[in-house]
Design goal:
Elements (H helix, E strand, L loop, with lengths): L1 E5 L4 H12 L3 E6 L15 E3 L5 H10 L4 E4 L6 H6 L1 H22 L3 E7 L22 H20 L2 E7 L1 E3 L14 H10 L5 E3 L11 E6 H19 L6 E6 L4 E3 H12 L6 E3 L8 E2 L4 H7 L7 H15 L8
Parallel strand pairs: 1-2, 1-4, 2-3, 4-5, 5-6, 6-10, 7-9, 8-12, 9-13
Antiparallel strand pairs: 9-11
Helix pairs in contact: 1-7, 2-4, 4-5, 6-8, 8-10
């Protein structure tokens, strides 16, 4: 077995590559290094620099490494940018996926794991989101992820490929400092960035129908997320050798809600820089509550997230300080 991980030099991808190698899987990474960092990868994982939508590169990598399964993580993923540049997001996330699947079919690969998102649900009117909650994305990013799911499942059914679509909720933390999230697009590093610069964290809206008025979200440690990928790839192995290739769609979360205000307070505790958040206007489309039901992953695969929120914040802070030395003296 050899797994190709597209986008494998990214924040999540590097954790997946590390977890799969630790489990004894052979792995090759394809990444254009536009946001990824090659140094994140284990030394024994080959890195091919190129686009996951380049058919010539795909055909070569799939053949040369005798790839038998694909974990597709490469994608554009910023909600605001997707609103400004919908054509870019559809080209990268949908057209690019189509090219990849064509190469997968031609190469006879029978295992395909697709990185999806809770953004496919939009703003659901429910306290606990199950995989059967209606999908109604409210931005081009979420739309491209939902269309991607449709495309993956349809291709799997037509060509006997065992498929899985993983709907991530909010990812945080780091398995080790060198693998941490270096961007400032997710809420935890956004808080770190503000505190490091001597500014208070920002919270968008404190008048939601929640216990403290701020949005409630489900956070999962990136190391748990990587282990979930490993559990799913093993399920794909079983399905690919059976009579029915099958497909699997699962939420990846802890099933526990945490308010943004509580998260900001915890970040202040961990960093030693407690500051009262600045409350700004609500952002359009933010749901009051978005918490995953994690029951299907437990029932189907026996997998449950193990790490808590404090561990996420502490590990993320250690990684932030590694890449931002000034953070240690900002207190």
């Amino acid at each position: 077995m050899t797994w190709l991980i597209t986008g494998g030099a990214g924040y999540i991808g590097a954790h997946v590559a590390k977890a799969m190698r630790a489990a004894g899987e052979r792995v090759v990474v394809l990444d254009d290094i536009s946001t990824g960092i090659g140094a994140r990868l284990p030394e024994d994982v080959p890195l091919v620099r190129g686009s996951a939508s380049d058919r010539e590169v795909l055909d070569r990598v799939l053949a040369e490494h005798a790839v038998t399964g694909v974990v597709h993580l490469a994608a554009k993923k910023q909600v605001g940018e997707s609103v400004e540049k919908p054509l870019l997001y559809y080209r990268e996330n949908v057209t690019g996926l189509s090219v990849l699947l064509e190469a997968v079919v031609a190469a006879g690969v029978r295992r395909f794991l697709f990185s999806s998102s809770a953004a496919v649900y939009g703003v659901p009117d429910t306290d606990l989101i199950t995989e059967d909650t209606p999908c109604a994305p409210i931005n081009p990013y979420g739309e491209t992820k939902l269309v991607g799911e449709w495309l993956v499942r349809a291709t799997g059914r037509a060509h006997g490929i065992s498929t899985a679509c993983l709907r991530y909720f909010n990812v945080a933390g780091a398995a080790e400092p060198e693998l941490s999230d270096t961007g400032v697009h997710n809420v935890v590093p956004m808080f770190f960035d503000r505190l490091t610069r001597g500014e208070a964290p920002r919270i968008f809206g404190d008048d939601y129908p929640t216990p403290d008025g701020t949005c409630v979200r489900d956070y999962i440690h990136v190391a748990d997320l990587a282990e979930a990928h490993l559990a799913v790839t093993r399920k794909l192995d079983l399905n690919a050798t059976g009579a029915d290739a099958g497909d699997l769609t699962v939420n990846i979360g802890r099933g526990e809600g945490v308010s943004v205000l509580r998260l900001a307070e915890l970040v202040g505790e961990v960093t030693g820089m407690p500051r009262k958040p600045v409350v700004e206007a609500r952002r359009p489309g933010d749901a009051a509550t978005a918490v995953a039901s994690a029951a299907r992953m437990t029932e189907e695969l026996g997998w449950t997230a193990r790490r808590g929120l404090r561990e996420m914040v502490e590990s993320a802070w250690e990684g932030w300080c590694l890449s931002h030395p000034e953070a240690r003296v900002a207190k």
